[in-house]
Amino acid sequence: MSVDLRLGDCLEVMKMLPDGCVDAVVTDPPYGTRTNQRETWMVGEFANVLPVALPEMFRVSKTNAALYMFMSWKWMADWILRLSPYFRMQNFIIWDKGRHSGTFGKFSWQFHWEGIFYGIRGPRPIAKYMPDVVHSSEARIYPMQKPVDVTKQLLEASTSEGDTVLDPFMGSGTTGVACVQTGRNFIGIEIDPGYFEIAKKRIEEAQLQMRLPLDAALCGEEETSG
Q1: Distance between CA atoms of 79 and 76, rounded to whole angstroms?
Q2: Over the stretch 74-85, which tens digit does the pLDDT of each residue have?
Q3: Which of 44, 48, 124, 132 falls 20 to 30 Å from 117 in CA-CA distance?
Q4: How far apart (Å, rounded) are the C-alpha atoms in residues 226 and 224?
Q5: How buried is residue 7: exposed, middle or buried, by Cβ count under 10 Å (0-12/13-18/19+)?
Q6: Rounded distance, CA 219 to CA 201, Å?
Q7: Would you say 199 and 190 are in contact if contact means Cβ atoms under 8 Å apart?
Q8: Which of 114, 54, 41 lies closest to 81 in space, CA to CA?
Q9: What is the pTM of this model?
């Protein structure tokens, strides 16, 4: 199992990846948000970075690759149109957070869920029966952090051990942690140096934890034999 972490703009980094090298793209892109790195070319709230990144995401995907993308309800109509020319959209999965969003607005109902677009580039069957509502109330440490347990469900539904998963907007590294815990190869790209270091640390800790049971067993054998 390999982990390839790259600090930089995904628009440039993805150009270095070969055609058809990933089995799935699992990501949480910045939507409806301006960033210091991209102020010069971002066009309005709806455009953001994804329209420019999609052609490269498509190119590096295998002909039967899967796509999972976290998304706000506000941009559903806009993004389904942007995604459909590249991936055949199959589901809009509901992540039930089991709690409110943490904000209160007296003119709105409180958000208890977030959406996940699911699409495929070609025929890729789901590994097992999967309801289109997933649940998690996993604690969040970093802003916009996604739950590892939900991400693992996505990976186990559409990839196998040894497959390669790309996250071009890695953020705090949840997709990488889930890949380590499920035996998938991971390519992660992040433009922000601070978040890159957070992701790197979390993924390294996950790798260490995955080795601990074996190390503990070896220590136990040594003690017994001594």
Answers
A1: 5
A2: 778 888 888 999
A3: 44
A4: 5
A5: middle
A6: 26
A7: yes
A8: 54
A9: 0.85
What's the number of domains the chain is made of?
Answer: 1
Q: Which one-letter amino acid corresponds to residue 200?
A: K
173 Cβ partners below 8 Å, 6+ apart?
Answer: 188, 198, 199, 200, 202, 203
Distance of CA 203 to the CA centre of its chain: 13
The order of strands in the sheet holding 22-27 is 3-7, 185-190, 164-167, 22-27, 61-71, 113-120, 88-96, 133-135
197: domain CATH number? 3.40.50.150
Any idea which residue has 């790259």 for tokens? Answer: 6
Per the structure, the complete domain to which residue 162 belongs is given by: 3-225
- 9-43: per-residue pLDDT in tens? 999 999 999 999 999 999 998 765 555 554 544 44
